[in-house]
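for the record, two folds in this file. i put them one after another cuz i was lazy. first one right below, seq on top, structure tokens after. the second one comes after a little note so u can tell where it starts
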Amino acid sequence: MQIDYIIVQAGGKGTRLEHLTTNKPKALVPVENLPMLFHLFRKFPDKRFLIIADYKKEVLREYLSCFAEVKYQVVDASGTGTCSGVRQAVGLLPAHTPFMLVWSDLILPDSFAMPDEDGDYIGVSQTFPCRWKYENGELTEERSTEFGVAGLFVFWDKSILADVPESGELVRWMQGKAMTFKVLGLAGTREFGVLAEYEALEQAKCRPFNKLTIDGDRLTKEPADAQGEKLARLERKWYEAAAAMGVRNIPRMYSSEPLTMERIQGKNIYEYTELSFRSPKWYRLLNTLVFSLVYAAAFVMW
């Protein structure tokens, strides 16, 4: 079975990720310094993606236009719930074309492979808990790890979803239709639908497409791929120009190849939960942002 299309359910406000989705959809929340959605892009670079979006969809479009290197189309969802946008996305598929439907907060393991045999498949978690389970050919709203419904499906033809409602919970609708599936094991898959799972990540967090190494009071940033290299060149030039202009209150640079600088004790701005417009910390961050924009503009002109 040749699968050329992937529908990504990237809708919803991502409220369980709390402050991480204040200014962006959950599909762009970084995991291991790469937006969750881009893990799918990396794993399936030759596929065509239909990305269902609603919350902060303008942010998603702008980000994809800058960084996505796959063939994709954003689908503006109508309705609510996990059914939202599915019928619209399915309507864009050619007839008699197998496809995968997957939630954007799943990070698939290196071992995952598309099924070879024809048929309809349901991804079963095996190693992490889910609210629904699929066992003995039945969908049940019962928490399960071994048989959990993880939010990944493969369909032989789009006709099976022809009458999916505009709103509602997709798995509940499938239960009402008494759908049956072949099982596709998802052992090793990671789900980042809630804040606790994200905060359990142990590695240092930095901008997407970078690799970060900390050695005492020194921090080294290296590009992780071609996109990261483009960003790294601009960042190195910015720091070099700022240092030449005598700009203060920036980390001390030790080298530019790779970019090694003084380590600053702090967080990414999106990780702060206690900020308000009246707080001193907010003013400092705002001043830093304005400062960066001014000098970035100066560097471009220079």
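(here's the note) second protein begins now
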Amino acid sequence: MKLYIGNKNYSSWSMRPWVLLTETGIPFEEGYLRFDSFDADSAFKAEILKHNPTGRVPVLVDGDFPVWDTLAIAEYLAERFPEKNLWPADPQVRARARSVCAEMHSGFSALRTHWGMNIEANLAEAGARVLAEQPSVRADLDRITSMWSELLAKSGGPMLFGHFTIADAFYAPVVTRLVTYGAPVPAAVKGYIDRVLALRSVSAWCRDAREEHDFLPFEEQYRTSRT
């Protein structure tokens, strides 16, 4: 299988299946497609359209069969590798895990808009300003921290549903955002953030992101350079 992804510093959608595959030891090849722009005539669009008719990353290609959209990729992997226990075993707990993944997939638009993923940056000042000026971002943050706190308390940790699941992969980019923007979080959530960052998959992704040294102005809201 080959997973096509974009820049690791910026591409939160790419991070989810990459972390899922890497953390669970499912073998795959990485297909790295640098963002140059998202215009129809960009090199990125020309290449990704060879693999995904939507012209976006990520896309998982298994043989000659492409699967796009992060939820579809996650479900495909769960069915393809049932021994990896990518979802919780209990039907109700599994339904809850699917629910919070779907919530991430379609929600938290304010947080995603104002706090774009930018792993190598330290934007705590901008983060505090956004929280003060954007009630919708504060509401998204409150929902995420209350959700995580509830799930961790119920499962006993260390991950949201006890062991590492698709849900942790889906929220890994949020973890990096909360660090980048210096989000204030409860102690239990801070512990979860630290544990996610320590996962070998997340640690490897973040290391690669910091080593890209590829400053893309169209991905930057708060900086005009890397310094």
